[in-house]
Specification:
448 residues; four-stranded antiparallel β-sheet; alpha+beta; FAD/NAD(P)-binding domain; 30% helix; seven-stranded mixed β-sheet
């Protein structure tokens, strides 16, 4: 017996068989599951938390980024389809604000209420016919052959189980299924660097009128404090009012390992360190905000995110890798599945670098190719969300909720088409996929 390993012999029970198995309940996972189920395919969505939304709920993101683009100086919504339905449902619950200007006032984002978003996503899945499996971790796969997945292994309070499927959609954020099945991937920039995570927190009992001026004053106050020797995890603090204007969300942290590298979202020891460090930073920055910022004198932290906001880990090496040049050049693709208008937003050790396409002189959005969701080697797997096939810089744009919804809806639709034809994901008809997406409200960027 090796002292560093334990040999196990397992007979794993099969808890169910589905046509489409989706891992991860973030924007890409919810759109993928809804699209597949609405196409008449039995679909299960496996999620580790007891609610959906991914980082949008668990990491307190609380706003949609990438639904809009700066089109020749005009702010227009460019992500549609399932995204529209989510917005409509949120509006009916009073859980969605009008779009606001963000990132140097050059693009729009949209605040939503976290609790309303959870409820809307529950309803969307139930009414689409999706089987939800909460509190379950994907932990591995069983292969039929070198290029075909037979089952996803999960672990939960009920023990270990397998879920068999015909098509699998990896929306884990970390390319978990892809990595377990042997599909090639890369981590970060390939040289050990990755985007840095943040820990967000919610502030209550804010004086909304005075806080408007306080928010604008805060960067100057932080600079002055730094000149006196005060240390902050990042330059500036991004704070924005929520649906109820006495509640604000703050993005004011940047979580590093003790050696200065970005916390690895696939490393349990680094994540454990990062969660503690993130909460420490939240409290430290909040104490400063409260002590110097008008409108926040009587405020308190009502919630710290349930997890670090991980921006980047593994990304598959697919049939095409979306690049920074594609983002900034507003690229077109024959196999477009939708569009992305968010700029390159890289969170590095030295701060946040933002690069826009040439707005207002450009169209302001790029098409996204179907090929970016096709991993090498595996025939019955699609990968959607921040772990799709993108370069380090390209992913700094297309990792946000808008393009993730685009990829998810396309992945679920493509999986249904592949099952109907009895073929692999890369063999489906692109015109048929595009026609189905447009019929369901998606904007592919082919007509403006």
């Amino acid at each position: 017996m090796n002292a560093r390993t334990i040999t196990e012999s397992l007979n794993t029970p099969v808890m169910g068989e589905f046509e489409v198995v989706v891992l991860g309940g973030g924007p890409s996972g919810i759109a993928a599951a809804a699209a597949a189920a609405r196409s008449g395919r039995s679909t299960i969505l496996v999620e580790r938390y007891g609610f959906l939304g991914g980082s949008g709920t668990a990491a307190c993101i609380s706003d949609f980024c990438g639904l809009h683009a700066n089109v020749h100086g005009e702010h227009r919504q460019v992500v549609h389809g399932i995204a529209d339905e989510i917005q409509e449902r949120l509006q009916r619950l009073g859980g969605l604000k009008d779009p606001h200007l963000s990132l140097r006032s050059m693009i729009k984002a949209q605040v939503y209420d976290l609790s309303a978003y959870k409820i809307v996503l529950d309803q969307l899945m139930q009414q689409s016919g999706v089987k939800l499996l909460f509190h379950a971790f994907g932990v591995g796969v069983h292969m039929d052959s070198a290029n075909r997945i037979d089952a996803l292994f999960i672990e939960s309070k009920s023990g270990r189980a397998a879920i068999r499927g015909k098509m699998f959609i990896d929306c884990s954020g970390d390319a978990d299924i892809a990595a377990w099945s042997g599909a090639p991937y890369e981590y970060g920039d390939g040289r050990g660097n990755s985007l840095y995570p943040s820990m967000k927190f919610r502030i209550n009992n804010v004086d909304p009128e005075r806080a408007k001026d306080g928010r604008n004053l805060l960067p100057k106050l932080m600079e002055e404090a730094e000149a006196r020797g005060r240390k902050f995890p990042r330059k500036g603090a991004l704070m924005r009012p929520q649906i109820n204007h006495i509640e604000w969300v703050a993005n004011a942290t940047l979580v590093k390992n003790p050696d200065g590298t970005a916390v690895d979202g696939t490393n349990v020891e680094q994540m454990s360190y990062g969660e503690v460090e993130g909460r420490r930073q939240c409290w430290d920055v909040f104490e400063f905000i409260k002590s110097v910022t008008p409108g926040f004198e009587n405020a308190y932290i009502v919630d710290i995110a349930a997890q670090l906001g991980i921006r980047q880990t593994r990304r598959i090496l697919g049939e095409y890798m979306l690049t920074e040049e594609d983002i900034l050049g507003c690229a077109d693709f024959e196999d477009s599945i939708g569009v992305n208008g968010w700029p390159v937003e890289a969170h590095t050790a030295t701060g946040v670098t933002i690069k826009f396409a040439n707005v207002p002189h450009s169209r302001g959005f790029n098409q996204m190719p179907y090929r970016m969701m096709l991993p090498e080697k595996i025939d019955n797997l699609l990968v959607a969300g921040r772990c799709a096939s993108m370069t380090y810089d390209g992913q700094s744009s297309a990792r946000v909720s808008g393009p993730c919804l685009v990829m998810g809806q396309a992945a679920g639709t493509a999986a249904a088409l592949a099952i109907k034809e009895g073929i692999g994901a890369r063999a489906i008809s692109i015109p048929a996929l595009q026609a189905r997406l447009e019929a369901n409200g998606a904007f592919l960027g082919r007509k403006w």
